[in-house]
Amino acid sequence: MQALMLLLWTGALLGHGSCQNDAGGPEEGSPDPDTTGVPVEEEDPFFKVPVNKLAAAISNFGYDLYRVRSSMSPTANVLLSPLSVATALSALSLGAEQRTESTIHRALYYDLINNPDIHSTYKDLLASVTAPEKNLKSASRIIFEKKLRIKSSFVAPLEKSYGSRPKILTGNPRADLQELNNWVQAQTKGKIARSTREVPSEISILLLGVAYFKGAGFSTSLLAKGHSICFIPGQWVTKFDSRKTSLKDFYLDEERTVTVPMMSDPKAIIRYGLDSDLNCKIAQLPLTGSMSIIFFLPQTVTQNLTMIEESLTSEFIHDIDRELKSVQAVLTIPKLKLSYEGEVTKSLQEMKLQSLFDSPDFSKITGKPLKLTQVEHRTGLEWNEDGAGTNPSPGPHLTFPLDYHLNQPFIFVLRDTDTGALLFIGKILDPRGT
């Protein structure tokens, strides 16, 4: 699948790795593509749609965040829902003056988008991802420290683009906690009982967002002296037969194995490809609501996942989506119930967002100095046999014998297929969650 690698190079040119000076133009001495006589590759029509282009930008932020987080946890599972982090940062940028706004926008790759109304497009993106047929409910709220005076010029665009109004804490920890948890329960129809066990002390800004997708499966949350929760359970289009689930070996490395429940489908229709450059087998499974999950399985259990991780961009994943071929396979997937709670403060600081924690300018929100002091990310993931129970027509597919067993460390990407938005990403080294 050499075409995948060719588009990866194109994606690198479109990203922050492109040859640019600080002003955003070509570096001095670099050739002007219009004068070299070399044909310039035209942008994929998919990315010409404003919502899709924005989705690609914040997804590239998500892949960056994942890479930093993974490098900090080389021997542990990693779970992230980058969309929740990106949405919180994007909403916060409404209250930032130019210097701080530019810092946030560069991290979100907005500086590479020729779009004068990013926040209006973000509203359209959220509307697409939460369309009724996708069974995803999303809401957000910004909570400020007690007695803070908020400018109306910040409130209006926040409500318009992100559908939320800010709330000022009362200063009564028990009452404030009850208020936040009641709101979370209402937004998620009780699927998330509470947002947190206590209101963090010395709050400047608390970002609270929730999303609920009908069913059971994926969930995540973000606390950024603030807090964002995303509940995105995915249902397989085709339900796994629980009678075929059995205990099988999962290879942690060449010498160590653990026994875990593995779901199985001996006649699964998957979209498949082999990337010889990354030395991995790629498979895509559809989820309900126009979502899909892509697995990256190394050829050998001893293979380092870093090369695969470094290749992940919105453009590369989009190309994979076009290139994979439908095949029938013997498929096994571990049942998972994992969770992660911890800070991603250092990860964001590594992504050139340090100034948000030092001396940001949020004077569009209030005249009082504000800054981020901590960013926590809470994520839960569960896969089981549940599915829509449908048996879609397999359509044309290759019939050569193929086994695809996720019985060793792998990476997965869960995305919205309509917009390409990255919803969830993970590195599974041990499905037991240890």
UniProtKB/TrEMBL annotation:
<dbReference type="InterPro" id="IPR042185">
    <property type="entry name" value="Serpin_sf_2"/>
</dbReference>
<protein>
    <recommendedName>
        <fullName>Serpin domain-containing protein</fullName>
    </recommendedName>
</protein>
<keyword id="KW-0325">Glycoprotein</keyword>
<dbReference type="GO" id="GO:0005615">
    <property type="term" value="C:extracellular space"/>
</dbReference>
<dbReference type="InterPro" id="IPR036186">
    <property type="entry name" value="Serpin_sf"/>
</dbReference>
<dbReference type="GO" id="GO:0050769">
    <property type="term" value="P:positive regulation of neurogenesis"/>
</dbReference>
<dbReference type="GO" id="GO:0004867">
    <property type="term" value="F:serine-type endopeptidase inhibitor activity"/>
</dbReference>
<dbReference type="Pfam" id="PF00079">
    <property type="entry name" value="Serpin"/>
</dbReference>
<feature type="region of interest" description="Disordered">
    <location>
        <begin position="19"/>
        <end position="41"/>
    </location>
</feature>
<feature type="domain" description="Serpin">
    <location>
        <begin position="63"/>
        <end position="431"/>
    </location>
</feature>
<keyword id="KW-0964">Secreted</keyword>
<dbReference type="InterPro" id="IPR033832">
    <property type="entry name" value="PEDF_serpin_dom"/>
</dbReference>
<dbReference type="InterPro" id="IPR000215">
    <property type="entry name" value="Serpin_fam"/>
</dbReference>
<keyword id="KW-0732">Signal</keyword>
<dbReference type="InterPro" id="IPR042178">
    <property type="entry name" value="Serpin_sf_1"/>
</dbReference>
<dbReference type="GO" id="GO:0016525">
    <property type="term" value="P:negative regulation of angiogenesis"/>
</dbReference>
<feature type="signal peptide">
    <location>
        <begin position="1"/>
        <end position="19"/>
    </location>
</feature>
<dbReference type="InterPro" id="IPR023795">
    <property type="entry name" value="Serpin_CS"/>
</dbReference>
<comment type="similarity">
    <text>Belongs to the serpin family.</text>
</comment>
<dbReference type="InterPro" id="IPR023796">
    <property type="entry name" value="Serpin_dom"/>
</dbReference>
